[in-house]
């Protein structure tokens, strides 16, 4: 398998990589700016802050649950490059709404933009994976998937770091410029026509979703892969929800430290994505997945232990980044968080490659869409659970124990997949 970065010099890969990179960057500049703005400038109650983050996360994920069947059908029955151009045009309008929400400020407008970005990502999501087997050689798919994942998390890293240092006015300008660049990159993607003629297109989103999931989940290996991925993203969703209130109220640190936490998580997944590709040497296999997610759970428990014993030096004051990193427990905490992310990336990337290489090319987008439906349903459930636990008085720190328990379930599913396929 070709793992070289030379793929970035090929038109059959670079434009889709760039479009995905810019989209992920824009998503995270806007979402992180919005969450930090609400956490540090609008609300002053840890319970309400966690609940707002859960609502924002749930709204972004909800379109994946409702519309993935439609997006998968479109991606398999229309030219994928044509769909990308429509989606990236819509992004410009969405960012206008989101920017207005930040400037006014207006929480409803910001949440409306988050929901719309979820719709945008729902229709782009199946394409970014389904187009790879169509444009790349078979021995390039895992390498291409790893590069897309690594690029995505580097974009998330850049977006989350930047969001901690810019004003709402600067955020608005940046997201509009990046949306325009994404539109230009999308226009360079080579044609990716459907692999066969489709005679039936079901516009009924509920029926289509049930049909799509049933058509995929009855295959044991895909069922196990999708369930494993779903638990991973549920874990990720809960962690992202908890980070800002955890940093503010437990670690007594400012929004730049919260941005640092999100950034460390993102870069760790990128490292894990590349590392597992090297370990597997191009082979699509789940053999490292169980061990990776067990290690992830152990690192989550370490984060929990450090947070439980954290003592701030100046009660009532928030650390900045320089003060935070000088805290005696900061290095261990950041190292543990990095460990969570690296092992998470090692767990999930081979499973995505598995989804796109074990089905016929004309079914790839719909397989990814079915995966998105199940993933998003699990993530919405995770967001709701975080909301309810917060309402019941369970702290952000104690919710980390739930995350560690979910890692055990993911490890069991990954082991079953390894036995079934490897």
From TrEMBL:
Superkingdom is: Bacteria
Where in the cell does this protein reside? Cell membrane
What CDD domains does the entry give?
Answer: MFS_MefA_like
Q: InterPro entries, from UniProt?
A: MFS, MFS_trans_sf
| Topology term for the membrane | Multi-pass membrane protein
Q: Pfam families, per this entry? A: MFS_1
Q: Which residues form a coiled coil?
A: none
The answer to whether keyword Metal-binding applies is: no
Q: Where are the transmembrane segments?
A: 52-70, 82-103, 141-163, 222-241, 261-280, 292-311, 331-355, 367-390, 396-415
UniProt keyword annotations, A-Z: Cell membrane, Membrane, Transmembrane, Transmembrane helix, Transport
Which PANTHER family does the record cross-reference, listed alphabetically? Answer: MACROLIDE-EFFLUX PROTEIN, MAJOR FACILITATOR SUPERFAMILY (MFS) PROFILE DOMAIN-CONTAINING PROTEIN
What protein name is recorded for this chain?
MFS transporter
Organism lineage reads as: Bacteria, Pseudomonadati, Pseudomonadota, Alphaproteobacteria, Sphingomonadales
């Amino acid at each position: 398998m070709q793992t070289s970065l030379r793929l970035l010099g090929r038109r059959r890969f670079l434009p889709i990589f760039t479009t995905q990179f810019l989209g992920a960057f824009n998503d995270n500049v806007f979402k992180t700016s919005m969450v930090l703005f609400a956490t540090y400038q609008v609300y002053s109650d840890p319970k309400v802050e966690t609940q707002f983050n859960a609502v924002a996360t749930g709204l972004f994920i909800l379109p994946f649950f409702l519309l993935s069947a439609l997006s998968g059908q479109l991606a398999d029955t229309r030219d994928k490059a044509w769909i990308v151009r429509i989606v990236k045009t819509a992004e410009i309008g969405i960012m206008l709404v989101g920017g207005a929400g930040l400037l006014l400020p207006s929480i409803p407008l910001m949440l409306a933009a988050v929901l719309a970005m979820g719709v945008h990502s729902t229709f782009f999501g199946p394409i970014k994976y389904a187009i790879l087997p169509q444009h790349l050689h078979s021995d390039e798919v895992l390498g291409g998937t790893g590069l897309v994942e690594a690029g995505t998390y580097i974009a998330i890293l850049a977006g989350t770091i930047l969001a901690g240092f810019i004003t709402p006015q600067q955020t608005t300008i940046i997201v509009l410029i990046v949306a325009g660049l994404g539109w230009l990159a999308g226009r360079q993607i080579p044609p990716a026509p459907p692999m066969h003629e489709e005679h039936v297109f079901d516009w009924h989103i509920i029926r289509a979703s049930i049909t799509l999931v049933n058509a995929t989940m009855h295959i044991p290996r895909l069922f196990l892969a999708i369930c494993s991925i779903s638990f991973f993203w549920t874990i990720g969703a809960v962690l992202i929800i908890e980070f800002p209130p955890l940093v503010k109220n437990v670690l007594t640190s400012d929004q730049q430290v919260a941005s640092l936490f999100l950034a460390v998580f993102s870069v760790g997944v990128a490292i894990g994505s590349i590392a597992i590709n090297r370990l597997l040497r191009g082979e699509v296999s789940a053999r490292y997945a169980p061990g990776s997610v067990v290690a992830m759970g152990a690192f989550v428990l370490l984060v929990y232990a450090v947070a439980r014993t954290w003592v701030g030096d100046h009660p009532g004051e928030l650390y900045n980044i320089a003060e935070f990193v000088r805290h005696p427990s900061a290095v261990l905490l950041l190292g543990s968080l990095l460990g969570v992310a690296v092992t998470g990336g090692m767990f999930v990337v081979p499973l995505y490659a598995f989804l796109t290489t074990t089905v016929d090319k004309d079914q790839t987008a719909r397989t990814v869409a079915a995966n998105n439906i199940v993933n998003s349903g699990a993530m919405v459930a995770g967001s709701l659970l975080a909301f309810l636990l917060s309402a019941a008085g369970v702290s952000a720190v104690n919710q980390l124990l739930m995350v560690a328990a979910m890692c055990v379930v993911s490890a069991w599913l990954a082991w079953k997949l390894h036995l079934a396929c490897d």
